[in-house]
Amino acid sequence: MKPLDHLADLYDKYDTFLCDIWGVLHNGVVAYPPARTALEKARQEGKCVFLMTNSPKPRAWVASQLRAFGLSSSCYDGIITSGDVTLDMIREGSRRIFHIGPDKDRCLYDGLGVELVGEFSAAVVVCTGLFKNKTPADYKPLLYRLCSRNLPFICVNPDIIVQRGEEMHWCAGALAQIYTQFGGNILVSGKPHRPIYDVACGMVKERTGQPVNKSRILAIGDGILTDVKGAYLYGLDVLFIGAGLHVNEYAVDGEIASDKLDTFLEKFHMQPTAFMMSLS
């Protein structure tokens, strides 16, 4: 794994960057200006930059959130969200949906013609996240009841946990794990699963007008089980950002302990192509 100082060090090897958002460009509270500048410079050098996120929201909503953080479209060519990719699963499924997640996520269903119903009337479960101040354990009785009826469980955000400022917040992927443990049927489109990467490559092809060459694409992210694993499974090189989600696993007094980092990566049998503490 090659340690890097700047993304520009990889310009000769890659033409396209698929960059995670949360944990790389911002932490849910503040943006990281050096990361924005790095992506802007890449585009100025003729590189393609697409943002890939497991957000359950549509890309227009994510773009609006990015603007609020001072991250304009000058630093990317397009956005791929797990929410958008999951829409096909929702369209192809039953119209009677039991929604698990905050009410603000219900914008996902706009224009789909679905009916949001109670758990006992539903034919499919769609999970976008947890309610505030709830833990995965709080949902176990509900998930067990749903699983006992053999309802498919569409997980819109495969992330298990994210960091918001100094706090950690559970995501829909944590509930999907429980549903799987109960023997339930999980349907997932976001990272680390293939559908979101297929969509991303389709957007790259459309943008460049050329066949996609995976060896010229670099994924960038801070999640070992989403960004790194997803890139590995799809056959892409990956730049691991160390200051994100897992930093407490291998940092000592704010500095990376190389032995701890090696142990962390070995635990997941992952070996990223390159490492950078923060994107710059």
Can you offer a commentary on this structure?
The chain has a domain of 105 residues: 3-Layer(aba) Sandwich (Rossmann fold), CATH 3.40.50.1000. It contains eight helices and 16 strands. α2 links the parallel β3 and β4. It has a seven-stranded parallel β-sheet, sandwiched between helices. It is α/β, with parallel strands linked by helices.
Q: SSE string, helix = H, strand = E?
A: EEHEHEHEEEHEEEHEHEHEEEHE
Helix content: 25-40%
CATH T-level topology of the domain at 84-188: Rossmann fold
Please outline the major beta sheet: 7 strands, parallel
Instruction: Look at the helices and sheets and give the structural class.
Output: alpha/beta
The protein's oligomeric status is: single chain
How much strand content do the residues show? 15-25%
CATH class of the domain at 84-188: Alpha Beta
Which segments are poorly predicted (pLDDT under 50) over 5 or more consecutive residues? none
Strand order of the largest sheet: 1-16-13-12-2-3-4
The gyration radius over C-alpha positions equals 19 Å
Compute the average pLDDT. 93
- The helix tally amounts to 8
Q: How many distinct beta strands? A: 16
- Ends apart, CA distance between termini: 18 Å
The CATH architecture classification of the domain at 84-188 is 3-Layer(aba) Sandwich
Which term fits the overall shape? globular
What is the CATH superfamily label of the domain at 84-188? HAD superfamily/HAD-like
